[in-house]
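step 4 of 6: structure.
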Amino acid sequence: MTTFPWQQELNKCVKCGACMAVCPIYRQTGREEMVARGKLNLIERINPEESGYKKSNAQDALPPGWIEAVDNCLLCCSCEENCSKGVKITDIIADARHWQTEKQGLNPIKKSAFSLLKNQVFSLPRFLKAGSFLQWLLWRRLPRHSGLVRRLPLPGFDDKTVIPALPKQHLDDYLKRQQSTMNLKPVLYFPGCATRYLYPQMGLDLIYVLAQLGFQTVMPQELNCCGMVTWGAGDQNSNQELQQRNLEVFRKHSEIKEIVTGCASCGHALKEYDELPEDCKILDISEFLFLHRDKLEELVGAKKLDKKITYHDPCHLRKGQEITSQPRWLLKLIAGENFVEMRHPERCCGAGGTFGLSHKELSREILAEKARDTDDSGAEIIASGCPGCLLQLTEGAVVAESKWQAEHPISLLADLLRKDVR
Ligand code: SF4
Ligand code: SF4
């Protein structure tokens, strides 16, 4: 029997309800069991050592609504940011999912997806490359936005669901052809799966900007998924395996002290790793650029993006890593007075890893608020430092029939540095 290690953490909750003000799921459903306080109450009612919880009678042993409450969470950390008692709510929920999957097994679709993430022979990149040749049979390009929508009815996807176009070349393929520049200072680059296999241009933009600043990005091929998606699904064994593989790569390159990523979720996951090599720092790209702001400000000079731009805080950047000022500094540098704050930039967009696919309706309701706030800002571009948010925001524009584009700040910066004026 697995012990459930969170009793002490659960005891910290004083049932004050402050988490209700910020939970996107609660805002849509108005149900107590959907907010952190309600979820923790339900989770607390299971004591694995006493409940006689066994594989054969798993459903019977759980209080009504337990699975639904534990499942309906974006792990957005909004509740944690607002909790004066510092309850580690997302860790408890992820651990509750782990406890449940240990007993009932992982959802078969997630199980196959995570096997691909870990398998080094029939691996995720090979699978995605095969998909890149076949995708046009079922999907078509969006006219105004990046991404694809379905051509024919497909289970689980409506005609507004946006998926990324699968590229034929991954970031690794481009880097194989790049010359190493020996006189630049090395920085270890952790691109994350989305940038590496779905949006390689985003990775090339980051590498280009770092080169302009005098840094050589080192991206070891042996890097794995950061593990965030497996952690969120309750598959702690896969999460541990992926972490250990990445730590091995970090140790192998321990002479490089800075590990940079352009993915908010990867950065959040990496900063939680135990046993990072000594003196090794994980930095979101906005943090890294802010550290080198004198040089960057000089490079940008008077160039400015001639488009109105707003910003969406990725939850894993703002609430997971407390990074709010650096991306704003960067966007002001890129756009000057064309940068405007939207209403509620801190609110989750409803992506939540695979939540947008598994809870489409709820995710869309949360996204509709974000699309309305973006519309009202009058921006032509919404920037966000998380590939998952960017995909979700693109879907938000498609559903709302809005024209604004979702872009990573690093791509806006790279374009500005490449051209005179965008
Ligand atoms: S804000 Fe924190 S302490 Fe208050 S009810 Fe929510 S989880 Fe409990
Ligand atoms: S992590 Fe987000 S969705 Fe989950 S309970 Fe907290 S605020 Fe709600």
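step 5 of 6: annotate
 - The CA atoms of residues 334 and 412 lie 7 Å apart.
 - The two ends are 60 Å apart (CA to CA).
step 6 of 6: archive
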